[in-house]
Amino acid sequence: MKKLLGIRYIFIIGIIFTGINSVFFLVGSVLEAIHGYKIFFEYGMDNPDQKPGVYLLKSLDLFLVSMVFLIFALGILRIFIIGSDQHEKMPEWMNLSNFKDLKVLLWETILVTLVVFTFTEMVSAKEVMQWQMLIMPGVILLLTLSLAIMKMSKKD
Prior knowledge:
Elements: H1 2-6, H2 11-43, H3 52-82, H4 99-124, H5 135-155
Helix pairs in contact: 2-3, 3-4, 4-5
């Protein structure tokens, strides 16, 4: 039995690489923001060819993806490595007791990320809007309704 409990430490490899992914996207976010600020200070907001706001929105996209990776890494660390014995040291939003709680937290984070990503894509679109651009908002609507239904059934 003790040997079986040692397998949980294999998750440390996944946690480390997921944390590295989070840092990677965070650095990308900072670089996009810096690029947007540089364009703003060179051209201002009025130049139609250079849109600093688009770079700042892309920076927000990358930051939110970084948060998804970070939440996943911390959630796996909390569930499989730390356990519930160090409850008071964790932030309130990380009080996860099982994998389902982590799934719901990730679901909510990914929904926010998808909303910002879709908004960014619609703002930065150079072509005329077509009906295909409604696919992502439709996906977001379905995911949101699914989450709401799951939360309502959880309360019952």
